[in-house]
Amino acid sequence: MSNHCHPLPWLAVLVAACGGSSSSSTTANVQIDPLPGFTGSAEVLVHSPAGALVSRATITSSLDVAIDDGDTVTIAVRANGRTTLVSALDVQRGDSIALPVDSEGSDEFTTLAVTVPQVSGVTQWNVGTPNSDSSTSDPTMVTIDVLTGTTTTPIIGTALGSAGALAMFAESSAAITGGEAPGVTLQDAVDFRAVPVLATNPPADVAADSVFTAGAVDLGAGSLVLAQVGSDVIAPTSFGDRLELVAFAFGSADLVEAATAVEGAPTSSVSIDLSVPDLPQLAQPAIAATGPSWTLTGGGDYTGLTIELSSSTAPDDDYVWGFSAPPGTTSIALPQLPADLAAPSSLDILHVAATAMSGVDYADSLHASQQLTTGETYETHAISLDPPQSSARAKHHGFCRTPVTFHDCVQYGLPFTL
Hints:
By secondary structure, the protein is mainly β. It has one helix at about 360-365; strands spanning about 1-5, 25-35, 40-45, 55-60, 60-65, 70-80, 80-90, 95-100, 110-115, 125-130, 130-135, 145, 150-160, 165-175, 185, 190-200, 210-220, 220-225, 230, 230-235, 240-250, 255-260, 270-275, 280-290, 290-295, 305-310, 320-325, 350-355, 375-385. Strands 4-3-6-7-27-26-28-29-22-21-17-18 form a 12-stranded mixed sheet, with no helix packed on it. A 5-stranded antiparallel sheet has the order 1-11-10-13-14, with no helix packed on it. Strand 17 and strand 18 (about 220-225) form a beta hairpin. The radius of gyration is 21 Å and the shape is globular.
């Protein structure tokens, strides 16, 4: 089984990245960083707070755009028949907005054959790269996917047996061999330990089998999902920068997630609190012709909101519009789009998430890095509005491939449907 990890580009829109906005500036700087395999195009649109289109320009790497305080800046990416709009609300003059651009195509990934060491008693291999993880019981058939065009990759592999984890191997930059059968070799053994990860205080209406825990090891080049045995995350003790441990609770129409970053593999169990007291309760998601809305109740000092609109009738996520908004936002008036960027069908799927990251305000939260640093925590509470017909289309239903999780829940192999 293999799970792809699709980067969600608008998660990394950043505002006031370096020292905040400058009152002397009349522009915002926009940057895109195309990932390997990207062959599409990108544009920057500026809208007034009322939604009127102010300017539109092509971007290939970096562009300064004239704005007024409070404008909305949108990056529109088109590749392989897909359109992704990324809108940052309430941008200030002097801000910087950055976006890693995914290749977003059917040929995005290359499958590698993984050569694994011989381990006595192994019944399953779990292997992960920053963009995919897979598991198999056949050591001669271990494969993993990487973004097309890459020549090296971080990779981790865990050999599991009837008694639990048997061995772990990891490379921070494993060479990818070319040719008709590209591959990669796992050979460096690393020490590891089993870390019990416990989800505490899940919502009362969430069934026990809808609460999950997971873990990943963070590196500068991305995160690698770790193998699990029950609630134990099999964690390396001397590989990577830090561990990120996560708990999820899936309700009938909402999701609660919390994560913490630790340095090294803890020697005792780690509890992750899903009560998320700083976050407001979200309810009544709705979509009108003018834009989406929802209600907020309670909550304390939280970071901001992320919103995503898509269509149940657009094939294969061909049109997605994401937003970042400051705390307290309960609606968005959709900016006016040129005809060639307008949604091809009704936007009838809505996901809204309130997030809190320790010590981070709204502007800082939009920095390009999506990885927690040691000691930081992350919490989110999200709601979803899906039309009945979308429930049969797993990849469109629920919270996977949406902005509401700090890591795409596909990465952790969580269920696609609620």
